[in-house]
Design a protein that fits this description.
Elements (H helix, E strand, L loop, with lengths): L1 H32 L2 H18 L6 H23 L8 H7 L6 H12 L3 H12 L4 H8 L3 H19 L6
Helix pairs in contact: 1-2, 1-3, 1-6, 2-3, 3-7, 5-8, 6-8, 7-8
Length: about 170
């Protein structure tokens, strides 16, 4: 009976983790995979790993950081296994954020501009702006140095500015 009670308890913990972090995991997976089906596969894999490994984490923030790190790893695995070249789009992730009231043509321009960024720049931007992480936290999640993350963010912002302004100098 202890095993059944333990299983029920861990299912409740998984459900709580999905409620707390599920949207962040799905958005990041959408950014990395560029398609809903791939993102849903990654989402399931991430929470399956949480269930299988049940890491001892100190807080909800540690749980979220662990889940996002696993999400990045699962997306990388998906690319390796599918042998895709570079197919990263933020269509659905930006569409969720588009509820901010931007006109459709601005959202489309932003999608196109972000699609031209490197994968690492896209992930850094997503974690910084959509998830609210600081550069040190992003560095830990992406397994990069904080200076490298700041460089990704700087170059991504610069590229977006140039693209969105039509190449004009500001």
């Amino acid at each position: 009976m202890d095993d059944a009670a333990e299983d029920a308890s861990s299912l409740v913990d998984i459900a709580a983790a999905i409620d707390a972090c599920g949207s962040a995991v799905l958005h990041l997976a959408l950014c990395r995979t560029g398609c809903r089906a791939g993102a849903e596969d990654v989402f399931q894999t991430v929470f399956l790993r949480l269930y299988q490994k049940a890491p001892a984490l100190e807080s909800d923030e540690h749980l979220k950081a662990w889940l996002l790190r696993v999400t990045v790893n699962c997306c990388n695995d998906l690319y390796r296994n599918a042998r895709k070249h570079r197919q990263v789009a933020l269509d659905e992730a930006i569409a969720v954020e588009a509820a901010s009231g931007l006109p459709d043509e601005d959202v489309d321009s932003l999608k196109r501009a972000m699609g031209k960024l490197s994968e690492k720049q896209q992930v850094a931007l997503h974690l910084f702006y959509f998830e609210g992480y600081k550069t040190d936290e992003i560095a830990s999640i992406m397994d990069e140095s904080p200076a490298t993350v700041r460089s990704y963010l700087h170059r991504a912002r610069k590229a977006l500015k140039i693209t969105l302004e039509g190449g004009r100098d500001a």
